[in-house]
Amino acid sequence: MSSLKIYVHPLSQPARAVMLFCRANSIQHEEKIVDLVKGAQHNEEYAKTINPLKKVPVIEHDGFFLKESVAILRYLARTFPVPDNWFPKDSVSQAKVDEYLEWQHLNVRTFGTLYFAEKYIVPRTTKQPPNEKRAANFLKHYIAVLNQVETIWLKDRPFLAGQDISIADLLAAAEMEQTVLGGYDVKENHPKLQEYLERVRGGLQPHYDDVHSMLNKIASKMKATQ
Ligand SMILES: N[C@@H](CCC(=O)N[C@@H](CS)C(=O)NCC(=O)O)C(=O)O
């Protein structure tokens, strides 16, 4: 019998996208939590046997190891019997998904992550306050790319690559949910993206809330103590 292990952590955006894909498609798999908070990704064993880049997500499918969320999601969509909308076989439809996947890494992913890291990770690892000037600059760029998502990618379609949800939406939603931990709630600031995120979430319940539960709990606690 085929075996799929996914090495993930629920506070990692690309890992959540992989978790969500597997859960929403009822792909039989085992979740291996790599405790990023405790630095488990830096363990010698993890670097040696799972991922020399010391990051999540990674999958292990029948002895085949694959890192990088985009490659993983494409591989899973090709390899498992999932509905075609996730990564369509039709060349033009697939290219539309790829178009977002190629763009997001240097845009939503980059600026959302830089902002989140400056506001959330840096203070926790250095015990120093964030550099607010740097954070504001990352946020400015993050808002600019979110505006591009609204006005270009979602201009005339409900999902990033067309009428149906695809793997592009999983990565986008996971990134947009993350920055609440840095104090920037996309849903409160971008009504069109709020509707979009609700659309993505609505079609993926209860899995969407399940994979975001740790993030949402931390965000609620932070809001309560502000
Ligand atoms: N390009 C990679 C990014 C992976 C990545 O940056 N993972 C982060 C969590 S979101 C990580 O594992 N960080 C641990 C570390 O840098 O120590 C992907 O899309 O899979």
Automatic annotation (TrEMBL):
GO CC annotation terms, alphabetical: cytoplasm
Main localization of the protein described in the UniProt heading: cytoplasm
CDD domains assigned: GST_C_Theta (cd03183)
GO biological-process terms attached to the record: glutathione metabolic process
Subcellular location(s) of the protein: Cytoplasm
UniProt keyword list: Cytoplasm, Transferase
Domain GST C-terminal: 90-225
Reactions this protein catalyses: RX + glutathione = an S-substituted glutathione + a halide anion + H(+)
Any GO MF annotation of the entry: glutathione transferase activity
Residue ranges annotated for the GST N-terminal domain, each copy included: 2-84
UniProt-listed Pfam families: GST_C_3, GST_N
Family membership noted in the UniProt record: Belongs to the GST superfamily. Theta family.
Protein name: Glutathione S-transferase theta-2
Protein species of origin: Orchesella cincta (Springtail)
Lineage start: Eukaryota, Metazoa, Ecdysozoa, Arthropoda, Hexapoda
